[in-house]
Write a structure and sequence with these properties.
Length: 381
């Protein structure tokens, strides 16, 4: 690298590389040296990406040693979670020093997502290590993210070990929930499970909306905590059908309505009346890179403004942002701008983030992404 000193952020950009000695295959593990010749670490290389090298270790270890030690460390980090939860994230990419790899646990099944060429080349070692270290029934690969194309990879969705159902049911907080292997991410959004629990004080006897509901994580929690009725709004008919099954399994028949529409359009149509006590907004990421930041701010402002207009005053607005390029402060400004336009007061009652199995490395800002707010909205005096 063209530096004599560097921090240990795992991403090494092409512009940081002074020269590449010798022949190599894209995706292979390479040694990294600083400009003064000092050994810096080992990582995998892919010059087709702006992030040309992703650091895996600062020691001269073999690929097998790296994979086994990193997985062992990740499992050790989550030991206390295994004792109380059926579902959690086992490996969170850069936070566990396995950049490009996500592994989620749903009961006896693991769902693996590989987003980089270098990690794809380590996949056999990863699967073998997981089988050896865990008592599991099956491992499913759900690598269908659009970022794979930038790494020269095609989508892969298949069982790598054992077999299992297309929809995996699991239990959390006394509820039956589901991971849909044909749905989003690894099948469910485990990063929101504690935030959903945080809705408990605000749900009782409320008429609610769950926009971008997916399979109904927030709706199920609201109903468990005493909500009178919930409308689930999502563009995916399949996700809503799974939500219907979950409502029945959890005993909430007659307390919900499924609305198969684009949530943006539905919020716009509904915002002409104040008729809901509580609205949940849990949208997908609105930006994959910093170049889309302004557009993401507009999108978040639009849906929060519509939700504020729909609420009875005072009302409860629960709003999430998983757009990594928006900081907490920037998202709060979006929320305040929406409140100003609606001429309402916005009071934060609860602020949440991602759970401990999605750990944040303070020196790797990209590992911090989830913002979650429970707010009370009332008219300004």
């Amino acid at each position: 690298m063209n530096k004599t000193r560097r921090n240990y952020h795992p991403w090494i950009y092409f512009t940081e590389i002074l020269k590449i000695d010798g022949e190599f295959e894209e995706g292979q593990i390479v040694d990294i040296f600083l400009q003064d010749g000092k050994f810096f670490g080992r990582g995998y290389i892919n010059t087709r990406s702006k992030i040309s090298v992703r650091l895996l270790t600062t020691q001269p270890k073999t690929a097998q040693q790296i994979v086994e030690e990193r997985i062992e460390q990740a499992l050790k980090r989550r030991e206390y979670i295994f004792r109380s939860e059926e579902a959690c994230r086992l490996i969170y990419s850069e936070s566990d020093w396995l950049a490009g790899l996500i592994v989620d646990k749903y009961g006896p099944y693991l769902v693996l997502q590989v987003n980089t060429l270098g990690m794809d080349k380590l996949k056999d070692l990863i699967v073998k290590a997981l089988i050896t270290k865990m008592n599991i029934t099956g491992i499913y690969e759900k690598s269908d993210s659009s970022v794979r194309s930038k790494e020269g990879l095609s989508p892969i969705c298949e069982w790598l070990y054992g077999t299992g159902p297309e929809v995996i049911f699991y239990h959390s907080d006394g509820l039956t929930l589901a991971a849909d292997l044909k749905g989003q991410k690894t099948g469910a959004f485990l990063d929101q499970r504690f935030n959903a629990k945080a809705t408990q004080p605000y749900a009782y006897d409320k008429v609610c909306v769950d926009a971008f509901s997916y399979t109904g994580n927030f709706s199920l929690h609201l109903l468990k905590y005493g909500a009178k009725h919930v409308k689930l709004v999502d563009y995916s008919e399949r996700s809503l059908e799974i939500a219907r099954q979950l409502m029945k399994l959890n005993g909430f028949d007659g307390k919900y309505e499924l609305i198969n529409e684009n949530a943006f359009d539905w919020l716009k149509e509904e915002s002409c009346q104040e008729k809901y006590d509580l609205v949940v907004l849990d949208p997908p990421s609105f930006a994959k890179s910093a170049t889309s930041k302004t557009s993401a701010q507009r999108g978040h402002k639009e849906i929060n403004l519509r939700a504020m207009k729909m609420l009875k005053k005072p009302g409860i607005l629960i709003s999430s942002c998983c757009t990594q390029v928006l900081s907490e402060q920037e998202f709060e400004q979006v929320l305040q701008d929406a409140a100003d336009d609606c001429k309402v007061q916005n009071c934060i009652l609860y602020r949440g983030s991602q759970p401990a199995d999605h750990p944040i490395l303070l020196d790797v800002s990209e590992t911090r992404y989830l913002k979650f707010y429970i707010m009370q909205i009332w008219r300004r005096a």
